[in-house]
Amino acid sequence: MEGSCRKGPVRSATIKDVARQAGVSYATVSRVLNDTGYPVKEATRQRVLQAAEAVGYTPNLLGRYLKTQKNDDVGVLLPNLTNPVYVELLNNIEQLLTGAGYNVIFSSSGRDQRREEQILLNFLSKKVCAVILIEAEGHRALLEQFSQKGIVLAAIGSESRYPFPILRIEGNETLCGRMAADHLLGIGCRRIAYLSAPLTRGSRRRL
Fold first, then answer.
1. pTM confidence score
2. Each residue's pLDDT tens digit, 19-29
3. For residue 200, what pLDDT band results from cuts at 50, 70 and 90?
4. Cα dihedral sign for 110, 115, 116, 120?
5. Three-state DSSP class for 92?
6. Pairing state of beta strands 73-78 and 130-134?
7. Closest CA to 167 of 151, 186, 180, 178
8. Which of 2, 117, 175, 190 is deepest in the core (most CB within 10 A)?
């Protein structure tokens, strides 16, 4: 009846619906929507994307991707949100990127390698255009997948070295430590203690 509301849950569109709408196989739809790298003709790819939008199948913000052909999301991986240094750094990153028209997605790992890997896999599934790593180490094979897909990588305070392009931002901890000591000596301090977290990171050992 016209004007009535249909009761019960609304069924979400599936890959089968997209395939039926586009007139292609399920495998072709999966290759296009998951960006597997398998060669698909451009005309077929566009037909699949248009069919997905038509039936309301929208994983990974497909609707916006169809219109702009790009993703403006930037993933930021940081150790935690309790350290005011990281919070200030994240705020600065967010202000800079949002001002330039990007969206910032951030997650904290607690310096847990497994958690870091899960976060990176999540960024990969969201097809972010860039990833900023704050004091994250390793994950060479996984980060190489980002590089191969043309995703920009940047590392802040990381000691890991990679065979693929990655922007690096590093501080001079030795100079900072010297400046702090010079200041304390200049105001008359002679017994100076250095309190640190465990010396498991080079940045702490260089102070």
1. 0.56
2. 889 998 877 88
3. low
4. negative
5. helix
6. parallel
7. 151
8. 117
